[in-house]
Amino acid sequence: LYIDPKQRPKNSTDIIWLSPENIRSNSRERWTVYNNPHFSDIKQGVLGDCWLLSGLVVILEQPALLEKIILTKEYCREGCYLVRLCHNGQWETVILDDIFPCDINGNLIYSKASRNQLWVPLIEKALAKLNGSYESLISGLTVEGLSTLTGFPCESIKLEKNGQNEEEIDKDMIWARLLSMKESGYIMGASCGRNNIDDSVYEDYGLFPRHAYSVLNVKEVLNYRLIQLRNPW
Known about the structure:
two-stranded antiparallel sheet, three-stranded antiparallel beta sheet, alpha+beta
């Protein structure tokens, strides 16, 4: 669970480990690895890994990517699953059991998927195993999440200057690139609050600072430049 069990993060709570049959759920559907997954199924828990979950949202636009990640595609009563992720530039297959962290009431405490699907907590657990703990997944970068899930190199586009010697940001060029990338089928994410910008600037627009979003669509309508974002929360 933690990088150092003797120094737990603030606001950490008691955790128990449960298999799917013992996890509390509001859904009446049987447990499956995935069941026609949709981006609205993905729910973030108390772990600050929105950078990973926002990436999960956008890879669903290309279902073949998810099939390459989840190698065990059927619910396994023995509780053994294989998940494949790109870790530090290398594809690695992770062997997992199906015991997940829950609160004392039996609810999944970290990520989950609606309708009793296991693919989201399985991917999160696989990456936690590769990195040594769930706590190690807190506060990553959107490009890290996309690279981990796709194995492809990712590009980050800056939306503001960080120093006096940097060139001016060409918003028209950025917009043209975003439209081109969307038309080409690229998957995209966005993040807020990595630079010296006051939190209120984001909050005034209804965004959360130090948070990652999925970019679902980019479109120009009646000269309005529109970007559709989804919050993993």
